[in-house]
What we know:
Order of helices and strands of chain B: HHH
Shape of chain A: globular
Order of helices and strands of chain A: HHHHHHH
Radius of gyration of chain B: 17 Å
Helix content of chain A: 55-70%
Largest sheet of chain A: none
Largest interface: A-B, 90 and 74 residues
Structural class of chain A: mainly alpha
Strand content of chain A: under 5%
Helix content of chain B: over 70%
Distance between the termini of chain B: 58 Å
Strand content of chain B: under 5%
Radius of gyration of chain A: 22 Å
Number of helices of chain B: 3
Shape of chain B: elongated
Largest sheet of chain B: none
Oligomer: heterodimer
Structural class of chain B: mainly alpha
Amino acid sequence: MTADLIFYALALLTLLPAFWVVLSPNIVHAGFALLFTLFGAAGLYAWMGADFIAITQLMVYVGGVLVLILFTVMMTRVPQSGRKLHGFDGLVPPAVIGLAILAVLWKVITGTQWASQGLGEVQPTTAEIGVNFMTNYIFPFEFVSLVLLAAMIGAAILIRERKQGDDESANEDTEVSS
Amino acid sequence: MTVGLTHFLFIGAVLFSLGLLAVMTRRNAVGILMGVELMLNASNINFVAFSRYVEHSINGQIMSAFVIVLAAAEAAVALAIVLALFRNFGTPNADTVQSLKR
């Protein structure tokens, strides 16, 4: 019973800020709402007994990705950078598409007879995940580390300072309409 | 009603729809990236839920660890692109960057 209550609290912590991520006109508020959503998701992983994934979520998402996102938001701040809302015209078609997809997913989730065997026995997963990374999943593991290296080098190359004269022609025909 | 697999699947479905909505409605490129992160989290929740409720094995959790790593790499590259965009165009909005168009 207590576990159920904790689950519902975590679900609210995940879903309510997610609405704010989508609907907030202020992108900084959306970023901080994303913080709570990611915390809630980490709590849900912990609730299910996936301790390694929960801690990884906290370290990588909350400690890394979210900080990067907030940095970028604050470095690219221009006045009125939010959404342009002409009444609700701009929001209706996406909302219809989103609700349609949610309806389809809801139909699938409720209509399927899942082979659920209940929550398995909860035990530490870190050692098992580590062994699997080094045996069954050795190729994806190495491949993903290569992808990370490539992404790091790519990001560094993308944001390096250009030499003078490089981007003069690029700046001539750009149009800033904000 | 006791908490089961469908509860987690429902959370995943709602998160995915919200992420899709953010991708479709946000003009700011960072907002679009936030929507992508929401969708990746939805898939992660589903992976872990199936791993814990149906298969009782570790494979789903390993898959979600890979998803987290790829999301981090994707966020790094995407934010570098947004910063380069901001330096060249003076705006982080995705719909004002159309110099190829004319």
